[in-house]
Amino acid sequence: MSDVKLYTLSTCPWCRKAKKFFSDKCVPFDYVDVDLLDGEEQDKISDEVYKISGSLQYPVVVIDDQVVTGFNPSRYEAILGLPHDEATA
How many other C-beta atoms are found inside a 10 Å radius of the C-beta of residue 12? Predict the structure, then answer.
């Protein structure tokens, strides 16, 4: 099973879609809503997100060692080896 981590914002509709995608596919994942963190922790995680993705565009999804910026279900499926689902595209 792949290690899946999402960096999201609580108010971001694309972030909610990413969480729903992994839930609907029964893929376990961890996530952090960056905007709900306290000051120093938020700064630390934001720096980490920028280092791994090169931007602060959310969601940032890390699947094993691959980083996907933005909501991109077909890319998630490809990395995870899941069949492509036209309904999630």
Answer: 17
